[in-house]
Design brief:
The chain is α+β, with helices and mostly antiparallel strands. It has a single domain (about 25-160), classed as Pnp Oxidase, Chain A (Roll), CATH 2.30.110.10. The protein is built from four helices and 14 strands. The protein has helices at about 15-20, 65-75, 85-95, 180-185, and strands spanning about 25, 30-35, 40-45, 45-50, 55-60, 75-80, 110, 120, 125-135, 140-150, 160, 165-170, 175, 180. A seven-stranded antiparallel beta sheet has the order 3-2-6-9-10-5-4, sandwiched between helices. It has a three-stranded antiparallel beta sheet with strand order 1-11-12, with no helix packed on it. A hairpin with a 6-residue loop joins β7 and β8 (about 120). The longest helix is centred in the middle third of the chain and has 9 residues, at about 65-75. It is globular and about 50 Å long. It starts with 13 loop residues before the first helix and ends in a 6-residue tail after the last helix.
Length: about 190
């Protein structure tokens, strides 16, 4: 039997909704554009879409500088951050950082071979992308992109973001901060404790 959920009588409280969305653990990326006005932002809304053709998507707040940058540039880079790169994630999430080329002075990067977008040195993977389609997503835009180039680092651990905090799991699923297997932490009430 197919049961339809009851519609809520009241609109969702944005704070509670954000907290509920935050229970979904994600990887952490830095999305970048090159060119005359380079820009970077930390993003956890990066998703693979298709293998054939190779497509990915990112979701960007329509008020963000990155939104305008993506539309103007049409190409971008994605660096999937490694476990030791939490400071890089924090840097590109900080609204007080310098803008333009100066924001990249604090990190090691190389220009993407095909896009010129800054790619973070030491990242688990780099994707060079070209915009293909965009869709309205409420206060965000969903950008779908063709992959132009991919590079990955084998045998490294990534950084996760869950419940508003960065976390690290080793290859055995042990939470680096707690020394507890991830499944045990989840049973006890979540990876973040």
């Amino acid at each position: 039997m197919n049961v339809q959920p009851e519609p809520t009588a009241e609109p969702c409280d944005p704070v509670q909704l954000r907290r509920a969305f935050g229970t979904f653990a994600t990887g952490v990326t830095v999305v970048t554009v090159g060119g005359e006005c380079p820009h970077g932002m930390t993003a956890n809304s990066f998703t693979s879409v298709s293998l054939d053709p190779p497509l990915v998507l990112i979701c960007v707040d329509q008020q963000a500088i990155m939104h305008r940058s993506l539309i103007e540039c049409g190409q971008f880079g994605v660096s999937v951050l490694a476990a030791h790169q939490e400071p890089v994630a924090r840097h590109f999430a900080d609204r007080r950082r310098p803008l333009g080329a100066a924001q990249f002075d604090a990190v090691d990067w190389v220009p993407g071979r095909l896009t010129g977008a800054p790619l973070i040195v030491g990242a688990l993977a780099h994707f060079e992308c070209e915009l293909w389609r965009s869709y309205d997503g409420g206060d965000h835009t969903i950008f779908v992109a063709n992959l132009l180039a991919v590079r990955r680092e084998p045998e490294a651990d990534g950084v996760l973001f869950v419940r508003g905090r960065f976390r690290q799991l080793d290859r055995d699923g042990i939470d680096v901060a707690d020394g507890v297997p991830a499944w045990q932490a989840a049973v006890r009430g979540g990876v973040t404790g």
